[in-house]
Write a structure and sequence with these properties.
4 helices, Pnp Oxidase, Chain A, seven-stranded antiparallel beta sheet, about 150 residues, alpha+beta
């Protein structure tokens, strides 16, 4: 049992290091080993101004792409979330398709509705929120809206 846990951890850890490069090169055609819907988020660093690319789990709400800044319930928001707050213009790529989006944090009823949808798709988000509650953190829901492509 311990060996299989270690083997699974090792495979996931290695995949998490390699996959962003493969996904970027393939514009999101390569998927995570788990088959989880994954998008490449290209964003600008809040302090550095450098371009960063982060693979994230996502779902859609109409034309919008929804991201959950869970960081598995850790006490602080993920760096990519801080970057989006400072620089909301992003690029998203999944399945070889993508383009320009504008990111914003969902609030109120919209946030509640999207959180319920996210928790139905992946019940682990509720566990992450319970962990984050201990640090007084409410996990942000981010809505990425397509930029007009006239």
């Amino acid at each position: 049992m311990a060996a299989s846990k270690f083997g699974g951890w090792m495979a996931l850890n290695v995949a998490n290091k390699i996959d962003p490069y493969l996904m970027r090169a393939s514009r999101g055609l390569v998927k995570l080993p788990s088959g989880t819907p994954t998008v490449l988020l290209t964003h600008t660093g809040a302090k550095s101004g450098k371009e960063r690319t982060t693979p994230l789990v996502y779902f859609t709400d109409g034309e919008n792409v929804v991201l959950i800044a869970s960081q598995t319930g850790k006490p602080k928001h993920p760096a990519w979330f801080h970057n989006l707050k400072a620089n909301p213009g992003v690029e998203l790529w999944a399945g070889g398709r993508g383009g320009a989006y504008r990111a914003r944090e969902a609030e109120g009823e919209e946030r509640d509705r999207l959180w319920r949808l996210a928790a139905r798709l992946y019940p682990g988000y509720d566990d992450y929120q319970r962990r984050a509650d201990g640090a007084g953190r409410r996990i942000p829901v981010v809505v990425c809206e397509p930029v007009d492509r006239d």
